[in-house]
Design goal:
single chain; 166 residues; mainly alpha; rod-shaped
Length: 166
């Protein structure tokens, strides 16, 4: 409230009108009744005016104090919002990296599955060239069923190791 000068001016105008009404009323009463001296009435009104002015100043200081506290709280809230945004950006970055890792692992699993299901050593070597995989020298003899099974178990072992590592 103290931040808005129009509001303070409105309050001051209302108080002035109130003081003027009080003065008029006291003058009317003193004119009807000879017991009150108009000078005493003015002194009384001056005291009332002084008290009201003190109350207005006290109210203004209190309002300023509350406005300062509000600005402080607003600054703290703003800082928390900034930190929250920063943390959320970092979390989103980590989530994106994890998604990329999961995509790469799924691609690797798909690649390994296609290698496992390969029917001939020629297909296996073609896959190895596409995915840049080093195949041991004993693999060209993979046309024999026993060796193919051995290679599959080797690949499954590799995949299990990958799974444990994640």
């Amino acid at each position: 409230m103290a931040e808005d000068p129009e509001t303070v001016q409105e309050i001051q105008m209302v108080v002035r009108r109130l003081i003027n009404r009080l003065r008029e009323r006291v003058r009317e009463l003193s004119a009807r009744n000879d017991l009150l001296d108009p000078n005493d009435a003015d002194e009384t009104l001056d005291l009332v005016t002084e008290l009201l002015t003190d109350h207005i100043e006290s109210f203004s200081r209190s309002a300023q104090k509350h406005a300062d506290e509000y600005r402080g709280l607003k600054a703290i809230t703003s800082r928390f919002d900034q930190l929250d945004n920063k943390v959320n950006k970092r979390i989103n970055g980590i989530d994106q990296k994890l998604d990329t890792i999961h995509e790469n692992v799924n691609e690797l699993k798909t690649m390994m599955q296609s290698i496992i299901t390969s029917r001939s050593s020629q297909q296996l070597f073609a896959m190895s060239e596409i995915y840049n995989i080093n195949i041991p020298p004993s693999v060209p003899e993979m046309d024999k069923p026993k060796q193919r099974v051995g290679m599959r178990s080797h690949i499954w072992g590799f995949l299990r190791g990958l799974k444990r590592g994640l």
